[in-house]
């Protein structure tokens, strides 16, 4: 049964993302899941507070989750749920909640239906294959199968930690398809808690605009701590960008800040798409 969190009267859901894998830390692969998750949280009106990248080390996974659980209601993990010896996420997540793991029969049935492992794997390989169905077990565990053509579930513990694959195609697809369920769990609606953001481009330097932005943030804090004023330098391009971020329930105030900032900084509005393109154009 889904539990609505709207009754908790939380103005915001605090989220965290845990990227697990030695291959990220040693530079073998580039993490794109955390970037997707950040945009995902923004679109859902969820406050993403922290992104952590850690290795395939049980104690590190356990300690990280136990720390994050104190102040976050929505935590996703990415990676470490394959069949090899270094895929220890399920066991480590279970340990962080003082749970055991065991082969989940529903997951095993899904595997058999879609992959037919008994017909193609020897005994040793089959044992490793079913490691991927060895999930945390307990009354607070719920596995969500988001599509008929995927046997891997989103494993949820206490509707707080959600274990997802590290493969970007699966991570993004599963989160997208899980969205209606997620919104029910947390009581999210397309209402006043959704984010609104304005970008302004100015030729003034950050030193020239810092005083104005500081005062603007202090003014905004009196209205809501959800309103964030930021600045982003674009080295060598001759301009900087100012960001004004808040929630829809303060849209009129945000629009007034935007209009004033354009005037005060001799700026011009820039779309979110253009700002993202400029910010991500640099190649190392």
From TrEMBL:
GO: which molecular function terms? Answer: FAD diphosphatase activity
Q: Which CDD domains match?
A: cinA
- List all membrane-crossing ranges: none
Pfam families given for it?
MoCF_biosynth
Q: Which spans of this chain does the record mark as coiled coil?
A: none
A GO BP term here is: flavin-containing compound metabolic process
**Gene3D superfamilies recorded:** MoaB/Mog-like domain
Q: Which residues form the MoaB/Mog domain?
A: 16-185
Stated name of the protein: MoaB/Mog domain-containing protein
Q: Which organism is it from?
A: Torulaspora globosa
